[in-house]
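can u do me a favor
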């Protein structure tokens, strides 16, 4: 397995508020206009899953597989060409600030790893920036 990690981002909101927002994927309604339509199409979601068409990968469905209150939200991808797991880790810094890190694990074979590692890391960093910039109120 290859592991990618975002930098730790600081979110200026209470840990519980951040967790409640991120653990309910129906909240993606509030940010769907910030998703680049040239990269992601057919975006759909409910409380426990979201699906999208990603060029050139195809349709991918992310489902919440575990919620640990105020600490982690773990996702698993189905319909993915490679096994893919993503989790959001949260840690309170103080009563009004939360530290957040994304971790993605996937099984890249040695031939495609050099090609896809940089785009995966860049995408993970962009997603972590987006999450950190959200309004959680």
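np, heres the sequence
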């Amino acid at each position: 397995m290859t592991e990618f990690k975002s930098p730790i981002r600081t979110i200026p909101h209470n840990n519980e508020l951040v967790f409640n927002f991120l653990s309910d994927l129906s909240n993606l309604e509030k940010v769907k206009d910030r998703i680049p339509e040239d990269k992601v199409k057919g975006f759909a979601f409910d409380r426990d899953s979201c699906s999208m068409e990603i060029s050139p990968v195809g349709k991918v469905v992310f489902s919440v597989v575990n919620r640990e209150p105020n600490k982690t939200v773990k996702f698993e991808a189905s319909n993915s060409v490679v096994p893919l797991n993503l989790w959001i880790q949260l840690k309170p810094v103080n009563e009004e600030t939360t530290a957040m890190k994304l971790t993605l694990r996937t099984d890249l074979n040695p031939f495609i790893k050099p090609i896809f590692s940089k785009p995966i890391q860049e995408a993970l960093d962009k997603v972590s920036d987006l999450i950190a910039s959200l309004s959680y109120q």
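The mean pLDDT is 90. hope that helps!!
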